[in-house]
Write a structure and sequence with these properties.
The chain is an alpha/beta fold. The protein has two domains: 144 residues, Rossmann fold; 67 residues. Helices cover 36% and strands 14% of the residues. Strands 4-5-6-3-7-8 form a six-stranded mixed beta sheet, with helices on both faces. The protein has a two-stranded antiparallel sheet with strand order 1-2. Helix 4 packs across helix 5. The protein is globular and about 50 Å long. The structure holds adenosine-5'-triphosphate. This is ABC transporter ATP-binding protein.
Amino acid sequence: MSHRFLSRSRPPTTALTDVTCRFPAGKVTAIVGPSGCGKSTLLLIMRGLVKASQGEVKFLYGDGKGGLAPGAPPRMATVWQSFNLLPWRTVADNVAFGLELAGMGAEERRAKAMDAIKAVELAGFENHYPGQLSGGMRQRVGLARGLVMAPDILFLDEPFGALDAQTRLYLQEQLSTLVEASAKTVILITHSIEEAIFLGDHVVVMTARPGRVAATLDVDLARPRGIDVQNDKRFGELFSEIYGLLRDEVRKSMLN
Ligand SMILES: Nc1ncnc2c1ncn2[C@@H]1O[C@H](COP(=O)(O)OP(=O)(O)OP(=O)(O)O)[C@@H](O)[C@H]1O
């Protein structure tokens, strides 16, 4: 698939060229790449918000396995980089927003929202407003809003990008546990090589813009993974391999 942004006032920008990748069901695929290489564009295309200039995205329909009804399209949810909480709605009402749009009754959506709020350890804050929460808590509300939809595919765009290092580590651990418990298909966009290895089953490494897939690596580290997996020799090897692939691309992206 390729994508070029056209503009009346500026020359066209080729964001992606000949990107071919597979995202295996029930696995976490992390996408890393230099800034501006087209990661978010790829996500927008996969979510159907931007139409690729060339090529297409195919989702495999349910075969009755993995909780997917036969022949049913996968349910999808996205946790966006700017988690876009509605400031005038409480945490519970923010989390339940998608269910409300889907027409679910008040009682049921409140119960589902509370389950998701508990899963991200925010019980007790359900009646708070976003303005009363820390950045890490708001990020967890964003995550709960994705989880509450019980998606078959969860897209995460830099879910912890704006957080301090300790909060980020803690949320990565929480997410790892949630993902392992749910066996969902997760597509994670991140700038962090450590995050990609810690959370991913596969890591797709992209080149500088126009983004292509430089390599796809399997993360052959056992699950469940705690953050101490970072001390594993294999973790270090994967880090070096990915950084080796990215190093020149990052330099190129700085000259782009
Ligand atoms: N709507 C748009 N119109 C024109 N160009 C765009 C548009 N959206 C993105 N681009 C350009 O396409 C390229 C890819 O952008 P994209 O946001 O997908 O990259 P990214 O890898 O997600 O970046 P980052 O890691 O910094 O978030 C960039 O050069 C960007 O400036």
